[in-house]
Every structure is written in structure tokens, then in C-alpha cells.
Amino acid sequence: xxxxxxxxxSLEALRCVVMNxxxxxxxxxxxxxxxxxxxxxxxxTVLRCHTSAHQAELLRRGHTHFLVTGxxxxxxxxxxxxxPVFHQMEGVRVFLPGDWEASGMDGTSYAAEDLKxxxxxxxxxxxxxxxxxWIDTYFPFTNPxxxxxxxxxxxxxxxxxGILLRVIQLNWLAVCKSKAFGDP
Length: 184
Fold this sequence. Notes:
This is Phenylalanine--tRNA ligase, chloroplastic/mitochondrial. Helix content is 20%, strand content 35%. The protein is of the alpha+beta class.
């Protein structure tokens, strides 16, 4: 069920606040918007906090499935799992009603099942035949949200966050369901 994807490269790390936060439905009072968490260049421009800052732009250009990989910037304290600059990858696919209607499933269930199959396949490709489990979780911008953990080198490790995107502010997308993975 995994679709072929479009790939965009050389996307600008400087993003306007609207693209970095508003277009991906980050609430106005969310902590990630603070000057303590985000690198502001000026009041309207930031270094992207996530590759999601390109989602709405790519959807408006007509892409219905794509991967975005890039460097992202967060004002994190340095420790074993945090650093102010790191690389992130996410993928998005939009499903039209014709994609799921024949399956007998609702659009959300169809997109979630497709996403899980794709990410399990990617995990097997990267890590081999490992034990995996899905954990239901919560992200304020998506519903449903879940994470894939693998048992690797004697411990459980989160390897993918799987999310179903809320409807982004595009009229034609209102009847569609979409899936994404990455770090919201």
C-alpha cells in the first residue's frame, strides 16, 4: 500500500511564523512558540523547528505524497537525546475517498493501517527482524497519534512517530484523510 513519493530538496530552513506554526495547527499559546524554545530571527521569521514547516506549502503546490528531510533547530539543553540542531525526516500522503471506499474502512482507519504497514516495513528494512509494538500517544496537532517502538540491542527504542494529520486549511483537502510520520 505504500505509495511512491515526491522528494523536495533544498527547502529553506528560514520559515515565517505562519508556516512553522499556524499552517501545522500549533496553538498560539503553545510552548514551542516561545523565544525560549525557538530560534527567532525577527518576530515573523524563525529557523524551522520541524520539517512540518513545509507541509502546507508542498500541499498547496499540488503534492499529494512527499518526504521532507532537513536540519531543524530547537533551543534544547544538550544531553544524550537532545541537541539544538538535528536532522529530521517526515513523510505525508493524502488519500482521496476513492482510495479507501472500496476497502470497507473509514478514511481514518484506512490511513492509519497504511501508515503502520509502511513504517513497519521501513523498520524491518533498517533494523532487520526485530520485535515491534505500537503505543497510542497524544500530540495536540494530530488525531490519532501513535509511536512505533522496537526492541533493539536489549532495550525498547522509539523509532517512528505515526500521526494522522488534521485537515490543513485547504478547501480541496476537506474530504481527504492524510497520514504522516516524523516528529510533530
